[in-house]
Amino acid sequence: MPTFSAAPDLVMHYELDDFADPWREKQTILLLHGNAESSAAWYAWVPHLARHYRVVRPDMRGFGDSTPMPRDFRWTLDLLIDDFSRLLDMLEVSRFHLIGAKIGGTIARAFAARRPERVISLTVVGTPPPLREGAAERAPELADEFETNGVEHWARRTMAGRLGSTFPPEGVEWWIKFMGRTAVSTQVGFMKTIACADIRADLPKIQCPTLVITTDGSGLASVDETKVWAQQIRHSSLLVLSGNSYHVAASHAERCAEAALDFIGQHPGNSR
User: Fold this and answer.
1) pTM over 0.85
2) How far apart are the first and last CA of the chain?
3) Per residue in 86-121, pLDDT tens?
4) Is the domain defined by 3-131+198-266 classed in CATH 3.40.50.1820?
5) Lower Cβ count inside 10 Å, N or C end of the chain?
């Protein structure tokens, strides 16, 4: 996996997948993973996207093989946006399609709002509301759980709602172990800040075409609640899939990848 020194305190690992025809000019898709994940979370998406686009999959600061962050690290959305912007600058990509899952969708919405000149289209999959009621109040209790029992304990306790009732048991166990590898120090700081971020003011500033994907039984928000915030994005559309998972990018990976591919194809924009 290649690395990039995005900042003095960060060596960022990323994957670059490109299986498109080499003689054809292609655009770039940036994939932003969720909390306690890494670029490997997109394993089922890559075969669909990389045949047509250059796909960049970074490990977010603190996660995967990127540098872990200390417990007292000062997390901000703008800092994360800067990390990813520097990565794309290094790859000489000025404009790109942006896809985010779970909290990656929160970061992606802020990115599209705050750097509109860079984002051609936006797809957010199983992402939280722009403000998660009660998240800040629960953060100290979660920090205690991470410190006492580790991240895997939390992942196991919460996985049923994340992946839904029809995900295969062996797949559930894989995701538990996968998320459980996250550094406790990263998770403690992240849950107190980014997981509680308020992006309500960002939504009306998103100018690019936006696809929002959820399930009709998501534990993050009802379809009606999702419609309320999605309609604040001027050029948005909503795709509702059947199911009771909220990590839709994992539970409905192929369907979501196909929908995103179709959406991007309808909004090619300009990569310069």
Assistant:
1) yes
2) 27
3) 999 999 999 999 999 999 999 999 999 999 999 999
4) yes
5) C
